[in-house]
Design brief:
The protein has 251 residues and is of the alpha+beta class. It has two domains: 84 residues, Phosphorylase Kinase, domain 1, CATH 3.30.200; 147 residues, Muramoyl-pentapeptide Carboxypeptidase, domain 2 (2-Layer Sandwich), CATH 3.30.1380.10. The chain is 26% helix and 26% strand. The protein contains six helices and twelve strands. The chain has a four-stranded antiparallel β-sheet. It has a four-stranded antiparallel β-sheet with strand order 8-9-12-11, with no helix packed on it. Strands 1-10 form a two-stranded antiparallel ribbon. A hairpin with a 4-residue loop joins strand 11 and strand 12. The protein is globular and about 55 Å long. The two termini are 14 Å apart.
């Protein structure tokens, strides 16, 4: 066994952080490596691993040049500009439904991407990403590459954002698959994981002959948190942007 020290600020970092109207993005800058989607210099940016998995997913479903990235990482200043422009052009009702408040947008994390079917006159705020065809194929395979449709229809009261079939969020595998199978939003997934305390009753997920254990570790208040873990296993840690960490262990 070994002991991993998790600093207080680690709660606000990782691919599973929850950013919404109640949980602001805490970093002043993105603070992570970004890559242009598809390797094109002018393309929207995504966190490095997210960009690579998106590229693999696009290739697997044969969507190269058929699905395009519309918007990825945004600075706080850009999110403010988009919000204020939408207010002026579309009004408060539309803007509150489809544009997150500056400081509360997933786009500031580097883990969110807006996609569109490649057609003329793509709308920047509400791009067309239909349920069928190549977009439907993409949506079906997305969880295997760590992506979820972040704002599904009928969950507006939970997410605080209107239905956005074009907005995908990287949370990693197997989290995306579990969320899809259980029909959970990211808000609901974090609440669900709190029932699976680290070292007591992890959530078990089997794939390709391996067991994956997922659990929640509450962060210590006023100081670092200590994670005791088997030094022979592969594991990842992500903060939840609130009060703890999601620990994922491959055995």
């Amino acid at each position: 066994m070994r002991t991993i020290t998790l600093p207080e600020e680690a709660v606000f970092r990782g691919s599973l952080i929850l950013v919404n109207s109640r949980c602001p993005y805490r970093e002043k800058d993105c603070g992570i490596a970004l890559l242009p989607v598809g390797g094109e210099d002018h393309s929207p940016l995504l966190e490095r691993q997210s960009a690579r998995f998106l590229d693999k997913l696009i290739d697997e479903v044969g969507a190269r040049d058929r699905i395009v990235a519309v918007s990825g990482w945004r600075s706080g200043a850009e999110q403010t500009r988009i919000f204020e422009t939408s207010l002026a052009e579309n009004g408060i009702g539309f803007t509150k439904k489809y544009v997150a408040l500056p400081g509360h947008s997933e786009h500031q994390t580097g883990f969110a991407i807006d996609l569109a079917e490649n057609k003329p006159d793509i709308d920047f705020i509400c791009p067309d990403f239909p349920s069928g065809g190549i977009c439907g194929k993409f949506r079906e395979r997305a969880p295997l590459y760590g992506f979820v449709e972040r704002y599904p229809k009928g969950r507006e009261n939970i997410t605080g954002i209107g239905w956005e079939p074009w907005h995908f969020r990287y949370v990693g595998f197997p989290h995306a698959s579990i969320m899809q199978q259980r029909g959970l939003t990211l808000e609901e997934y974090h609440a669900f994981l709190k029932e699976h305390a680290y070292g007591q009753n992890p959530l078990l997920y089997g794939v390709s002959g391996r067991n994956i254990e997922i659990s929640y570790l509450r962060a210590e208040k006023g100081g670092p948190s200590l994670l005791e873990i088997d030094d022979t296993v592969h594991y990842t840690v992500s903060g939840n942007n609130s009060d703890g960490f999601v620990i994922t262990v491959w055995r």
